[in-house]
Amino acid sequence: MKNGPDFMPYKLDSIIEEAWNIGFRMSCDAGTGGLLATLAASKPGGRFLELGTGVGAGTAWMLAGMDALSHLTTVEVDEHVQAVAKDHLGSDERVTFEHAHAATWLSSHAAATDVVYDLIFVDCRPGKFLHLEKALELLAPGGLYIVDDLLPQETWPEDHQPRVDEFLARWPVDGLVATPMRWASGILVATRVN
């Protein structure tokens, strides 16, 4: 069995090429991306949130699975890397790019609105290792919470494994059913049941 899909989203090749050219090595892999596209497709007309745009690889995968009535908000603190995503995907009206620290965005968004999301993909520390509760407050009933990079990666700093161990030890979380998987870069998928 392959660890990834049989298709690649529109513009993903050029996004990855530009990521390599600027030295960005933390893009979502094809196994994670294929799963994101599939799960996004399961939420027609859905509202999606990505914490950690990076250069937009995960964004491209989610857009590939989303229908025309769905909308994705993606948040990134580094304008330089998010500019790659904007250049390649900014013409898609289904996506809004937010330049903000994810922790600040989570706090201000949760306080300012009652919007909840049908799928939240977290590819940065806030919303996963920090401020998990804030991210989960934004998850709709039946919504999916997805994180990746739970298996050792070459890009990890030396002190990162304890963060992952602590995160995994927090599960199960009340009100959610979760499955950690040794798939792609290491994924946890959870859904809100109440």
Automatic annotation (TrEMBL):
Database matches in InterPro entries: SAM-dependent_MTases_sf (IPR029063)
Superkingdom to which the source organism belongs: Bacteria
Alphabetically ordered keywords of this record: Methyltransferase, Transferase
Name this polypeptide is given: O-methyltransferase
Keyword Methyltransferase: yes
BP GO annotations: methylation
EC number, UniProt record: 2.1.1.-
Keyword Transferase listed: yes
GO MF terms, alphabetically ordered: methyltransferase activity
